Amino acid sequence: MAIRQLRFKGDEILTKKARKIEVIDEKIKTLAQDMLDTMYANDGIGLAACQVGMLKAMITYDIMYVDEKHPKKQPVVMINPKITDRSKAMVVVEEGCLSFPNVFENVKRHEKITVEYTDLEGKRKVKNVKGMEAVVIQHETDHLEGIVFLDRK
C-alpha cells in the first residue's frame, strides 16, 4: 500500500484523543495496511493511527518483527481497543517510540492485561496478553488517549 508520514514530538495530534471507528470500510482497511507498512519501514513494533495523522482508534503491532528467532511477520490490527483488566504486577521496560526518535525511557507497565477490540472483519475479540505484547498494547492505546510514553516516566 503506502508508507505514511510519521508525526513527531511537538505535533498537536499526539496529544488528542482518538475517535471511535464506527464503520470498517475500505478506507479503514487501507489505513490499517498503510500503518503496518509505515511501522515496518521504520523498524517499529507498534503504531497508533494518530502517529500517521489520523485521529482514529486503531493500533497495529507485530512483536515478532524484531525477534531474530521469529523472522516472519505476525501483524495485529486492533480497532477500538479497550483494556478491560490489568494485573497488579508491574514491570519496568525501556520504551521508545517512532514519534520520538532516539529517545528511550524506563516506563512502568502492567505485566498482564486483557484487551477487547474489533478486528478488520468486524469480529469482536478478547485477548489476554503478557510480557512485551502487553507493554506494546499499553503504549499504543495510550496514544489513543493522547498520552505519550514520556508522560508515564
Structural description of this entry:
- This protein has 153 residues and is an alpha+beta fold.
- The chain has helices at 26-41, 131-144; strands at residues 46-48, 58-61, 76-86, 90-97, 100-110, 112-118, 124-130.
- The chain has a single domain (12-152), classed as Peptide Deformylase.
- It contains 2 helices and 7 strands, in the order H-E-E-E-E-E-E-E-H.
- The chain has a 5-stranded antiparallel beta sheet. A two-stranded antiparallel ribbon has the order 4-5.
Question: Which percent range describes the beta-strand content?
Answer: 25-35%
CATH evolutionary superfamily: Peptide deformylase
Main beta-sheet strand count, sense and barrel state: 5 strands, antiparallel
Element-level helix/strand string:
HEEEEEEEH
- How many β-strand runs? 7
Could you outline the blueprint of secondary structure elements for this entry?
Blueprint: H1 26-41, E1 46-48, E2 58-61, E3 76-86, E4 90-97, E5 100-110, E6 112-118, E7 124-130, H2 131-144
Antiparallel strand pairs: 1-2, 2-3, 3-6, 4-5, 6-7
Brief characterization of the structure:
The protein is of the alpha+beta class and 153 residues long. The chain has 2 helices and 7 strands, in the order αβββββββα.
Question: Which keywords apply here?
Answer:
153 residues, alpha+beta, Peptide Deformylase, two-stranded antiparallel ribbon, globular
